[in-house]
Design a protein that fits this description.
alpha/beta, Rossmann fold, 2 domains, 6-stranded parallel β-sheet, 44% helix, 8% strand, hydrolase, hydrolase activity, AB_hydrolase_fold, AB_hydrolase_1
Amino acid sequence: MTAAASTVFFLPGLGLDAAAVAPVARELDARFRVITVELPGQGDTADAPDGSVESQVDAALAVIAEQADGGPWMLCAHSMGGKVAAGIAARVRGGDVPVFGLLGVVLLAPSPPTPEPMPDAKRHQMLTWVEDGPIAEADAQTFVDDNVGASLPAELQAAAVASVQAMSPVAWRRWLEQGSVEDIASSVGALDLPCTVLAGDQDDALGAAVQPELLSDVYPRARFVSLAGAGHLLSFERPVEVARAITELWDEIVAHSAIVPAEWGLVIASPRTTPRARSALACRALPDDPRYRPRVLSVEQLELLRAVADRLVPQPAGGRIDLAARVDADLAAGGGDGWRPVGGLTDDEAYRAGLDDLRTAWPDSAEDQDALIGAVIDGQGVPGGAIDADDLRRWFEDLRVDVTREWLIHPASLARVGYDGFATGAEDVDFAGYRELGADTRDDWEPADLGAAPAPTPAQQQEDTA
């Protein structure tokens, strides 16, 4: 059996459990390994020590750390799980948890990191349901009926009602009185990763009409999808659309990512890698934004820089790193080595001027492009260019360093060249260095493919066949 390409960790909403995940899992193909992360009080899980969102995040991360295989994974989270998912993503970004590989999020009518906009009357009604213990069947029926746009099929209705009745009264009350009104926005910040938000237009509190206002600042790359006629229980109501959203997001991730091999992901997640290094690698591994807009360069300059980067650092057709966009983002953040000739242009100015000069003579064919690059490197300048040939050569040295660095610091590139030195700086392990230093040897913690020749790209395979 072929291993799944990605794991989907699914966090059900309030009153739900693994039964809410099953309809979606049935619609996903073999590329996805689906694991339900029942939060404290859901299904058979025990209640958390307290009702804070942090305790729910802790519990979810414990499951993810245990079940993660080192490969890429996504979060799919519904309602209450949406707020917890934001906390998970922030913690993974920070690197202080032993997990790696989060590449995207699909949210279903999510509760935001800010207090959930639930009417007081609705909150009071739901609290009365657990005054005397577990939720009664009639009240569970009311909860399900109030949260769907149209009646569910009998089998799904029964599963949803049973899930609500199985919910811990303690966890139910804690969420309504504490978790739902907790504000974790400051600790979450902006989560710059691929995100799809689905919501029904018949959902009053967390529906399609309010989600952009609630989440646009949290997920700047979010795409919001309104499901006509749907209520709040989307995994029961619209499993096909949910599965399609997961699949489409994964396809976008693959198209704009260099995927880190699973063994390398396990090393990054291990105690050998410091939180600081893990955080940096987690951020670098995120897919590039296909809708990226340049911050320092013009659109035309960015496109030329992409073309130049393609000649300097060839990459496979699929899963390319957008080196030019990463250079532009680094320039916008004040990156660079801080050095330039006396009286020379700033990094931003030099890039804009250099690319404009290069564009005046940029040819169409790859062969001619390589010839022009060689002339610039040799100090011959650009025919008819406005910049002194030596000045252009020095700027182009910086450009070559920048695009190469952006490629090399990506964890997939570190795996490709066989460098795992990022995992030798931890202070809380018995011995963080290398024990085996001889040729053709490696320590038992190192990836098995270390030192092996990289797999040929599809283009190389085609050339070999020819």
